[in-house]
Design brief:
By secondary structure, the chain is of the alpha/beta class. The chain has six helices and seven strands. Strands 5-4-3-6-7 form a five-stranded mixed β-sheet, sandwiched between helices. It has a two-stranded antiparallel sheet with strand order 1-2.
């Protein structure tokens, strides 16, 4: 009887370890494509931006990346609780106003946030460019975003041509250079 109990304990521990290893392997491989996108972009490659369809912030329909094909897109991953997001919001709004007529769309991707807080953030910062809700962070994860803010610059053909981690205003020329690249690629 005592040996049987030890055997059952060993089997249970082995099953737990196997489950943990399986979960770890799944986690590493499921996020790999996003991490690969960032790495490829930083190497100078131009990987295809993953398509997605998310609800618009405020609940009035959905937006998909594929619906923006033919336009350059500044995809900015943000959250209302993110202090650096607050500091870069005015620069993104100015860029949208300046470049929108030339085929640029700034698309905010609010992730892991409370919708009421996100709507208050948009009002407080006078944001007029579209924003979508990525409530659980799935889309941000597919892109390889590991925090906020992170910004992906997508050309008219749907390729990621530049990536920036952190607030864009820490390098004042980065936003302008990356927008130019997305518009002219």
């Amino acid at each position: 009887m005592r040996l049987r109990g030890k055997h059952a304990l060993v089997v249970a521990v082995v099953c737990l370890v196997a489950a943990f290893v399986g979960l770890l392997a799944w986690r590493l491989t499921s996020g790999e494509s996003g991490k690969g996108l960032v790495a490829a972009t930083l190497r100078g490659d131009r990987p295809a931006a993953p398509d997605f369809k998310l609800p618009r912030l405020g609940g009035d329909g959905t937006t998909s990346l594929s619906s923006l094909r033919g336009k350059a897109v500044v995809l900015n991953v943000w959250a209302s609780w993110c202090v650096p997001c607050r500091t870069e919001a005015p620069a993104l709004q100015r860029a949208y106003q300046r470049w929108h007529g030339r085929g640029l769309v700034v698309l905010g991707v609010d992730q892991q946030d409370v919708e009421g807080d996100a709507l208050a953030f948009v009002r407080q910062h006078g944001i007029t460019y579209p924003s979508v809700r990525d409530g659980d962070g799935t889309v941000a994860g597919r892109y390889g975003a590991t925090g906020v803010p992170e910004t992906f610059f997508i050309d008219r053909q749907g390729r990621i041509v530049a990536y920036f981690s952190g607030p864009l205003n820490q390098d004042p020329g980065a936003l302008e250079r990356s927008i130019q690249l997305a518009l002219t690629s």
